[in-house]
Amino acid sequence: MIIGIGNDTEAISRVGQIVARQTKFMDSILTPAEREQALERKGKHFHEFVAGRFSAKEAFSKATGYGIGEKVHWHDIEILNEPNGRPIMQVKNFRYKTYVAITHSGDFVNTVVIIERLTILERLSLKFFPKRGVL
Questions:
Q1: What is the pLDDT of residues 33-77, one digit of tens each?
Q2: Kind of enzyme, top EC level?
């Protein structure tokens, strides 16, 4: 059952300007693994990546209704890419399933996050087969 949907849009150039001006912005927003993936990218792809992660974390905060900082912090949310490029969101101490979509068009990035309550079968699957995930 879907329990939350969040959406966010950011101007990639604006996030790029923030990264250039505020040296600690990336450290405060991105986890170490996300920073590593970001630094593998060059030019506009670097800014798209950082803006996408920032936007996705904002969308997550909207989907939960918590905001960032109250119950969830920037580093509690990690979005890494699978080998095929699909972003996967993991949230510390969060018992619900999350889905994230990140898309870029021109100077904008748009993200959507969906939060779903797991069925009992899915929860048992995660408990007994944690590396395998949901059946």
A1: 999 999 999 999 999 999 999 999 999 999 999 889 888 999 999
A2: transferase
Q: What is the DSSP string of 1-65?
A: -EEEEEEEEEEHHHHHHHHHH-TTHHHHHS-HHHHHHHHT--THHHHHHHHHHHHHHHHHHHHHT
Q: Is 27 marked as a binding-site residue?
A: no
Q: What is the pLDDT of residue 129?
A: 76
Cβ–Cβ under 8 Å, residues 109 and 10: yes
* Topology classification of domain 2-128: Ribosomal Protein L22; Chain A (3.90.470)
Q: What is the set of active-site residues?
A: 62, 104
77 forms beta bridges with: 91
